[in-house]
Amino acid sequence: MTNPSADSNAPDDQKPATDFATQVTPLLTDLLYPSESDEPIEVVDTYLKMAEPLTVSHIKDWLMLPPSVYVEEMPEADFWVPVTTIEAWFGDDEKAQAHQFQQLKETLEKLLTDRQVFRVGDTEIDVYLLGKPAEGPRVGLKTKVVET
């Protein structure tokens, strides 16, 4: 008798997303992305399978956004620098969080190629870091930053 798993009936193109979530979700525990409002980070999956880099139009289509919603791509480094840089004034908690973000970054670098970061909105901004797993549609992370 086999041991059925929760995703044993999932289509093949959804299993990589499940594998990604299984490997990344434990790294997100108690991890908040800092801005004017520290926000949790969650795993996100898409149906986007194209070989070429994603565009703002792809993101708007995927999220079903009206043309009036502002979307921009930003360098991946701009996503990581604020959370992986250890400042001289950091206490133990801040250092531990920076190390946790560094571990998350290294894991994403191993699991995903062609990573891209998109910001959606103006003041309360959804941030998506998406990349290609070994097979299947793009997956990644989503968080929110507040900028007033």
Task: Provide an overview of this structure.
There is one protein chain. With 148 residues, this protein is of the alpha+beta class. It has a single domain, classed as Nuclease A inhibitor-like (Nuia, 3-Layer(aba) Sandwich), CATH 3.40.1460. It has 4 helices and 7 strands; from the N terminus they run αβββαβααβββ. The protein has helices at 15-24, 56-63, 76-84, 92-111; strands at residues 32-33, 39-40, 42-45, 71-74, 113-120, 124-132, 139-146. The longest helix has 20 residues, at 92-111.
Mean pLDDT, to the nearest integer, reads: 89
- Report the sheet with the most strands, covering strand number, pairing sense and barrel closure: 5 strands, antiparallel
Overall geometry comes to globular
| Number of domain modules | 1
Give the CA-CA distance, first to last residue.
Answer: 57 Å
The string of secondary-structure elements, in order, is HEEEHEHHEEE
Helix content: 25-40%
Radius of gyration: 16 Å
Strand content: 25-35%
In the CATH hierarchy, the architecture is: 3-Layer(aba) Sandwich
Query: How do the strands of the widest beta sheet line up side by side?
Result: 3-7-6-5-4
| CATH topology (level 3) name | Nuia
Number of DSSP E strands: 7
For the record, what is the CATH homologous superfamily label?
A: Nuclease A inhibitor-like
Derived structural class: alpha+beta
Give the CATH level 1 class: Alpha Beta
Unreliable segments (pLDDT under 50, ≥5 consecutive)? 1-14
Q: Compute the number of helices.
A: 4
Protein name: Nuclease A inhibitor family protein
InterPro entries: NucleaseA_inhib-like, NucleaseA_inhib-like_sf
Organism: Fibrella aestuarina BUZ 2
Pfam families: NuiA
